[in-house]
Amino acid sequence: MNKGKNSKPHIGIYGRRNVGKSSFINALTGIEVAIVSELPGTTTDPVKKSMEIFGIGPAILIDTAGIDDTGEIGTKRIAKTLETINHIDAAILVISKNTFGEFEQQLIAEFQKLDIDYIIIHNKEDEEELTHTILNQVKQLTNAPIEVCSVKNSKNIAEVIELLKNTIPQTVYQKTSLLGNIIKKDAIVMLITPIDSEAPDGRMILPQAMAIRDVLDNNAVNIVLKETEVEAFFQKSNLKPDLVITDSQAFNYVNKVIPKDIPLTGFSVLFAYNRGPLEEYVKGAQKLSSLKNGDRVLMLESCVHQVSCEDIGRFKLPNWIKKFSRKEIEFDIAAGLSEIQKPITDYQLIIQCGGCMITKKQLLNRLKPALDAQIPVTNYGLAIAFMNGILERAVQPFLINIET
């Protein structure tokens, strides 16, 4: 799977071999995007398909291998199918011919463990209609909504889409505003955007571009400049921004030049508020002051990118942490949404990037094992703010209290 590169909602399609998962995807989209065959096991590894679903919009459908696959290779395919559940926002469980048992129960248990919203579809109604016996069996196990359909004759496809739309949270498929709860109409927002080797040639990095668009969507005013021009702006202009958002790497300098009565935060902190467990992040950042020699820190990058010597997660932030803590700290990197190689309990702190390239559900599921194990978690921006002594100022726009 090409993981962690698209913030569209991810919807996984699950079920046994030959229940019609791939045909179901084709029916949902109205075009043939998935390979279909009567032979069981046609779909091997999970495959992402980007498409538009009427009523939901752009989405990523994940076509998975059958949960009942067999043999050594089949066991590996099942493992990959189950792994995808960590990366989805919603699920569709497809059954057919009144077959419902341990395989379906296993999938439902996985959905429930990660609090994944899901619906159940009984496909191939043209061959065998869903019986009351199986319907009651399903209802005894789960409260998930059930719909019947026939991909072959397009029966109830529209009803399935409507059910999916009404079942999964609107936050899965509707874009939420980054700043809608923070700024008012006609507010003046200053965006400080350093340009370094990690910035794409001729373009803004994604968090900056998203923030600029969000300010416009909220009928507010953008002032966009590099950190080197901030002092000149205040010397030459009488404008007073209602909010300043800076790249976290410039926190130390920007904090000094922005008047204390002007709210200041960072792009990464903004994404922590919008997509992450902000209060957990704030508490986790304070772990940086109590790290010990030999402690291990996991850096979570949610995208896969070319690495440079100015890479924030792999070089700059680990070096800043070592300097701040004055301890010999070990660092591991997990890029994209790839599997974490060491047990999560090996780490004393988890530091997540802003998460601009993934959905909120993917990010929370990524952090869930650490949170369940009560391992402190934070993100890049909040870690930098804490080490620069401005954590309280950086989260003040979000009305978060700092507990020490």
Essential attributes:
404 residues; alpha/beta; Rossmann fold; 3 domains; 4-stranded parallel beta sheet; globular; disordered N terminus
Protein model, in words:
By secondary structure, the protein is α/β, with parallel strands linked by helices. Helices cover 35% and strands 18% of the residues. The protein contains 15 helices and 14 strands. The strands form 3 sheets. Strands 2-3-1-4-5-6 form a 6-stranded mixed β-sheet, sandwiched between helices. Strand 13, helix 13 and strand 14 form a beta-alpha-beta unit. The protein is globular, with a radius of gyration of 24 Å.
Rounded radius of gyration (Å): 24 Å
Cross-sheet strand order for the largest sheet: 2-3-1-4-5-6
* Count of beta strands: 14
Helix content: 25-40%
First-last Cα distance: 41 Å
| SSE series | EHEEHEHEHEHHEHEHEHEHHEHEEHEHH
**Named CATH topology of the largest domain:** Rossmann fold
Which blocks of ≥5 consecutive residues have pLDDT under 50? 1-5, 31-37, 39-43, 305-309
The largest sheet, given as strand count, sense and whether it forms a barrel, is: 6 strands, mixed
The structure class reads: alpha/beta
CATH 2nd-level architecture of the largest domain: 3-Layer(aba) Sandwich
Overall morphology: globular
| Number of self-contained structural domains | 3
CATH class of the largest domain: Alpha Beta
Superfamily (CATH H level) name of the largest domain: P-loop containing nucleotide triphosphate hydrolases
The number of distinct helices, counting runs of at least 4 residues, comes to 15
Overall pLDDT confidence: 86
Beta-strand share of residues: 15-25%
